[in-house]
Write a structure and sequence with these properties.
The complex is a heterodimer.
Chain A (H helix, E strand, L loop, with lengths): L8 H5 L2 H15 L6 E12 L2 E13 L4 E5 L6 H8 L8 E8 L2 E2 L5 H7 L4 E4 L13 H12 L4 H14 L16 H13 L5 E5 L7 H18 L2 E5 L3 H7 L2 E6 L2 E7 H6 L4 H8 L42 H5 L4 E4 L2 E4 L6 H8 L2 H10 L1
Helix pairs in contact in A: 2-6, 5-6, 6-7, 7-8, 11-13
Chain B lengths: L18 E11 L4 H5 L6 E12 L4 E5 L6 H8 L7 E6 L2 E2 L5 H10 E4 L13 H11 L5 H14 L4 H4 L9 H13 L5 E5 L7 H18 L2 E5 L3 H7 L2 E6 L2 E7 H6 L4 H8 L40 H5 L5 E2 L5 E2 L38
Parallel strand pairs in B: 3-8, 3-9, 6-7, 7-8
Antiparallel strand pairs in B: 1-2, 1-4, 4-5, 9-10, 10-12, 11-12
Chain lengths: 373, 372
């Protein structure tokens, strides 16, 4: 992986001492184990002029070391809010309760000083808008070096050499470390953000919609990089996306969120093959698929209605207003989480899931409800 | 309401097109700085659209796909005359409107409407839904206040937004899907014959995309609208389009019936574009052919085939001669030397591309040694 580019001034002066320092740094970073994260009863309420907005309500999940967890749901379901709370980026005045244990250490409500020790070294973030997460007035290499030198006492030359390695890992030429963000295309910027997130080999990666603004070819390039890194470096990762197919390809486990709550979670294969919650069924059937020659096309459904206003969350099941199978009970009583094997869902009628799955594949099922909404 | 999985009625291929582009070119002139101007350096030209032929008939939905920066939106905006084409012709019902101005241009714009990607910024937040939809009628000086209101209500009916509840509300009161419907109603209120829908669902949640696609499908059948549906999401194209054209760097590289293109693409670019779409079946990433690098700049179009800098099958012929869009026996038209082309016969001594002979194409788009 050592770069052979001699174009950079750092490399021309890269002394054997620097290479030795880099090897030591690499060994130290590579020794970091993949992180284990357990989130218990996480609730987050933003404070607004009209009272608390319960963006996340009683969410629990676990990321085992070296696995990927997919967090899916529509816009406004609280996915990004969970991520922001985990890395301590929630706006001031936000009420966060519950626990998030990263390798046994509580990471919610840490002081600024304590957060500095956690961010980048133990948990790092791949943001959605790569355009806004890079400083336009510093060259890319300086920004990566800054992050490395803030946490590891190494020389700038060593940090630069590490940055070159990270660039090679995401498939960018080392010479472009001298460029500024505006000289990069959207896909290159996104890869830069991934390189930064990997620079200190954090045990836990949080990827918040890393490919949402990109076209399918760029998305495929970025996701295959992320998958490759996951395979080679065995990091743990939470991948936030609204694209179920990206989760299907990348994540061992899936959490489906709806209106701040976990609707369903479990191994991705189970959740997609046998969804238990009507919301998961709806999301899955709304996803456009490529046709297969000779086979009839599957119908595309749309889920009528919108996510409820979480300033005043409805008393019963939060999906009841849009669910084609909702009964009176669903509107009054909030469903408990029921487990079926490794999979679990918050629905009163979990035992009727096979029957619902069949009905949910038909557009009429969802349309009947849509007529009134 | 129609179901998206039922097949659309066949379009008569000999029917007169509503809108037709013939060798349409839209180039953008870069600005030169004072020093380069003094030195006599010509500013660069971005050839965003560089020779496109396309026809859209009554009740037909034509899908236009390709990566960001391939010229899809430039084609859409040129067709409705938001951009002035540099060369070539646009025919509206056989009437050449490429350089129409004044009254004639205004008349054409009444017939040709466009829907944009972002329903959050395409609606004026200070106007009510009724005023947003009424505005085109005012601009074209159609009817009195009562007649206009009636037309607005009819347009809202068409997009299935209850007029009584919504006509006096503001865009901020509506969800993304509803806003996009309002944008469609605004395009419909002039009773156009041709609509360009530029990524109409890519900003919407997947849960409501289907309802907007369904609406476009229904409108094309009910009102006989000719629709150009622009999207980088190839999977959605399969649900509503009769005909699909794939663009790369300002030109069409493959076109044909939607089902042919989507289930058996021929051009190496289309094949990779399709392979890039994530699949729902877990673990099904095997055999994915990754396309590397970025689209070359339209200011610096490669010699020969435009895809040659990224194509795994590239051979000497591709780098020297641009292939023409040729008819393939499978049904679609494809611009690739692999399928043989007339123009290439003049260069018998150049090495030809063939399936299976994969050459290594580097990330930067430059060509490395052919490995075999």
């Amino acid at each position: 992986m050592t770069s052979t580019s001699l174009a950079t001034p750092e490399n021309r002066t890269a002394s054997p001492a620097t290479m030795q320092a880099l090897a030591t740094l690499n060994d130290r970073l590579a020794a970091k184990p993949a992180a284990h994260l357990r989130v218990e009863k996480l609730s987050i309420a933003y404070s607004t002029a009209r009272g608390p907005f319960h963006a996340v309500d009683d969410v629990s999940f676990e990321v085992k070391p070296g696995t990927n967890l997919g967090l899916v749901g529509e816009s406004g379901c609280g996915k990004s809010t969970v991520i922001k709370a985990l890395i301590g980026l929630q706006p001031e005045g936000t009420k966060v309760s519950g626990q998030a244990l990263l390798d046994g250490q509580e990471i919610l409500g840490l002081s600024e000083r304590a957060l500095q020790d956690v961010r980048w070294t133990k948990i790092s973030l791949i943001t959605q808008s790569a355009m806004n997460s890079l400083d336009p007035v510093y060259c890319i290499g300086d920004q990566i070096c800054e992050a490395i030198q803030a946490h590891e006492s190494v020389s700038r030359a060593t940090a630069w050499a590490r940055a070159e390695e990270m660039f090679a890992l995401v498939g960018l030429p080392a010479s472009r470390l001298h460029d500024f963000p505006h000289q990069f295309s959207g896909g290159m910027r996104q890869r830069t953000v991934i390189a930064m997130a990997l620079a200190l080999n954090a045990g836990m990666l949080l990827a918040d919609e890393p490919t949402t603004a990109l076209d399918p070819i760029m998305q495929s390039q970025i996701m295959s990089r992320i998958r490759g890194i996951h395979e080679h470096m065995r990091r743990s990762m939470i991948l936030v996306t609204h694209d179920i197919a990206v989760v299907a390809e990348t994540c061992e486990n899936t959490v489906v969120m709806y209106a701040g709550k976990v609707a369903e979670k479990g191994p991705t294969t189970d959740v997609l093959a046998r969804p238990l919650h009507p919301y998961t069924m709806g999301l899955q059937n709304a996803f456009p698929r490529l046709p297969v020659k000779g086979q009839p096309r599957q119908a595309l459904i749309s889920i009528p209605g919108i996510v409820p206003n979480l300033l005043r969350p409805p008393p019963g099941c939060r999906f009841a207003g849009r669910c084609p199978f909702a009964t009176e009970r669903c509107h009054i009583e909030a469903p408990a989480v029921t487990a079926v094997g490794a999979q679990s869902a918050a629905c009163h009628y979990i035992d009727r899931a096979p029957e619902f799955r069949e009905a949910a594949a038909r557009p009429e099922t969802w349309r009947k409800l849509g007529a009134g909404a | 309401m129609s179901d998206l999985h039922t097949s659309r009625p066949a379009i008569d291929p000999d029917a007169r097109p509503i809108v037709e582009a013939r060798d349409l070119k839209t180039h953008f002139q870069g600005r030169s700085g004072i020093f380069s101007a003094l030195a006599g350096v010509k500013p660069p030209t971005a050839k965003a659209l560089d020779g496109v032929d396309l026809r859209i008939r009554k009740s037909e939905i034509v899908g236009l796909v390709g990566e960001s920066g391939c010229g899809k939106s430039t084609l859409g905006m040129s067709l409705v005359r938001m951009y002035q084409p540099t060369d070539g012709r646009i025919l509206y019902l056989d009437d050449d409107i490429t350089r129409a101005e004044g009254r004639r241009l205004k008349d054409y714009r009444r017939q040709a409407q466009i829907i944009f990607q972002d329903p959050y910024s395409s609606l004026n937040p200070r106007l009510t839904i009724g005023q947003v939809i009424e505005e085109p009628l005012v601009i074209h000086d159609i009817g009195n206040a009562a007649e206009r209101r009636e037309r607005v209500v009819r347009a809202l009916d068409l997009v299935r937004i209850p007029a009584v509840d919504n006509i006096d509300r503001y865009p901020s009161d509506l969800s993304g899907g509803q806003r996009q419907r309002v944008a469609i109603a605004r395009a419909l209120v002039l009773e156009p014959t041709f609509i360009v829908a530029d990524e109409p669902v890519s900003m919407l949640d997947v849960s409501i995309q289907a309802s907007v696609l369904e609406l476009l499908d229904e409108l094309s059948r009910k009102l006989g609208l000719a629709i150009l549906y622009i999207s980088h999401d190839i999977a959605t194209v399969g649900y509503i389009c009769d005909h699909v054209a794939v663009m790369y760097l300002g030109r069409i590289v493959e076109e044909g019936k939607a089902e042919d293109i989507l289930s058996a693409p021929l051009h190496p670019y289309t094949q990779r574009l399709m392979a890039a779409i994530p699949r729902m079946d877990p673990g099904d990433t095997a055999g994915r052919a990754e396309i590397r690098g970025d689209v070359p700049s339209p200011m610096n179009v490669p010699q020969g085939c435009r895809f040659s800098s990224r194509c795994p099958y590239v051979a000497d012929l591709c780098r020297a001669v641009e292939p023409e869009l040729g008819q393939h026996p499978a049904g679609q038209r494809v611009r690739c030397h692999i399928y043989g082309s007339e123009g290439a016969k003049r260069f018998p001594d150049l090495q030809r591309p063939e399936w299976g002979r994969i050459t290594e194409v580097t990330d930067a788009g430059t060509l490395a040694q052919a490995s075999s």
